[in-house]
Specification:
Blueprint: H1 6-23, E1 36-40, E2 47-54, E3 59-65, E4 68-71, H2 79-84, E5 87-91, E6 95-96, H3 100-109, E7 118-126, E8 130-137, E9 140-150, E10 155-163, H4 170-179, E11 196-210
C-alpha cells in the first residue's frame, strides 16, 4: 500500500490549483486568430476585357467576354496568397463590343478558327506590382505578365500586352483582317490590323470575408 505523507496531502489543493491554472491560460494570453479572409466582392462580376488595334496609327477597338468563370482560394489571409490562387476561364463566343454586327464578325471570322472555345488563365507568380498568368488559348499556353494596382475602394485593375501570333493565330488574324479590310483602312490608304492585343482584368476585392 502506498504511503502519502501528511505534508504532501496538505499541499494537494495547492498543486491542483497550480495544474488547473497552467492548463487553462487566461483568455487574454491566447493568440488572436484572424477571422477574415480575402474574397471577391459579390457586388460585381470580374471583368476580362481586351483592346485590339487598327489603322497605321494604332486606333483602339475594345470589347470583353461576358461569360467568365473565376476560381480562387477562399481561405487566403494575404493578398499574395489570394492572387496566386486565381484562375479563370472565358468563353470566346461571349465576345461583346457593344456592336452586334462586329460581335458576329469576330465570332465567324476570328474566334471560329480557334482550336478551343475557351480562353483560360492561372496565376503562377506574384510580385509587388506584377503577377504572371499562364494564358491558354487556341491550344497554346504562354506566360503573360500583368501590371496591377488596387484602388482605395478595393478595385483591382491589371493589364498586359500579348501578340496573337505567339498563340498560333496567324490564320485567324489573316481572316479577321480580310473581313475588316475596308473598315481598317486609314486616312493614309493603308489597311492595318495589328497582331498585338491588350488584356485587361478588373475585379473588386474585400478583406473582411468569412473564411470558408
Amino acid at each position: 500500500m502506498a504511503i502519502v505523507s501528511r505534508s504532501l496531502l496538505s499541499r494537494v489543493p495547492f498543486l491542483l490549483l497550480l495544474t488547473a491554472t497552467a492548463v487553462a491560460a487566461p483568455e487574454s494570453e491566447k493568440p488572436a486568430l484572424s477571422e477574415h479572409c480575402i474574397c471577391l466582392s459579390e457586388g460585381g462580376a470580374p471583368e476580362l476585357g481586351w483592346v485590339a488595334f487598327k489603322f497605321t496609327e494604332k486606333a483602339a477597338v475594345g470589347g470583353a467576354f461576358s461569360d467568365i468563370r473565376v476560381h480562387y482560394r477562399h481561405d487566403a489571409h494575404t493578398l499574395e496568397d489570394f492572387l496566386a490562387s486565381g484562375e479563370f476561364a472565358a468563353s470566346v463566343n461571349s465576345v461583346a463590343t457593344g456592336n452586334p454586327v462586329r460581335d458576329e464578325t469576330l465570332r465567324k471570322s476570328f474566334f471560329s478558327l480557334f482550336t478551343t472555345d475557351k480562353l483560360r488563365g492561372n496565376v503562377v507568380k506574384v510580385e509587388e506590382d506584377t503577377f504572371v498568368v499562364n494564358i491558354e488559348m487556341n491550344g497554346q499556353k504562354k506566360p503573360v505578365s500583368f501590371k496591377y494596382r488596387i484602388s482605395d475602394e478595393g478595385v483591382l485593375s491589371a493589364s498586359s500586352m500579348l501578340d496573337m501570333l505567339d498563340f498560333g493565330l496567324k490564320e485567324a488574324h489573316e481572316s479577321i483582317h480580310k473581313a475588316c479590310e475596308k473598315l481598317h483602312t486609314g486616312t493614309d490608304g493603308v489597311s492595318k490590323t495589328w497582331t498585338e492585343v491588350a488584356l485587361n482584368i478588373k475585379a473588386t476585392i474585400r478583406k473582411d470575408c468569412a473564411c470558408s
